[in-house]
Amino acid sequence: MHRTWLGPVRSRFAASGLTLDDLVGRSGYSKTRLSELLRGKGYYPGWEMTYSVVRVLNLPVAPLRRLWQMAAAEADKDATWIKNRILDVPSGDPDDQPVAHAGLAQAMRRPYTAYAQSFLQAGPRAVQAVTETFDILWVTWDEATASPHTPRYAWELLRARVLARAARRPGGYPNLRAAAFCTTAPYEAPDLVEQLAQVDTFARFFDAIARPPADQRDITVLRYLCGIDADTVPSIVGLSPAVTHTLDHHARWALKELFPDTEPQE
Hints:
Layout: H1 6-16, H2 20-27, H3 31-39, H4 47-56, H5 61-74, H6 79-87, H7 99-120, H8 124-139, H9 141-146, H10 150-165, H11 177-182, H12 192-210, H13 214-225, H14 233-237, H15 241-258
Helix pairs in contact: 4-5, 5-8, 7-8, 7-10, 7-13, 8-10, 13-15
């Protein structure tokens, strides 16, 4: 996940029509160093050089600085190094955040965070995945708004950021077992043996939730782990109500086959 910011920077550079020599002339850095930055090779670049490229490409500074900072921490740069590299560059004028982006972020932050916590548990990793999603979305806003459906673009971006951090079961699907230990239901059993048996049942149940295709899994997680109303789910995942209902129906009947005591509801 290092250098999450690099993908949008590369894409903007490719679309800009600039050559590497143009970038050298406008940024003031050597071709060797800029080539290493764009290829993601060598040492982790300081913010000053990254900022020079960001400005040449007319990308929003604030979200890219946050992405650079998070990726630097993931690259094992210590907090003092990160802070000093940021201080090397004047903060400048604030970016103009697109109004529609700000509205989408405000509306989706809570459901996105609930979804992230289902895979990553409550804590900084879930918050970071959501923050990273909104920052990448801001940086790629032109691409997002040119897509057939911006909320769908945003949801797929969130899913990718969450699953990149999520633990995996041996079969390769996301590990939701921690959610089995977060629910209070197993601990309502009267004795320890029954509690342990219920935890095992819940763990297998959450494994089953993690196995379906991505959209079915997402809808199941939002509906039954996050407790989000069925009428709200389509706007979150960026699918039509009819498609969302169909996927929900298929997922619940698949769970019914594995766990006959689970009664699917329309």
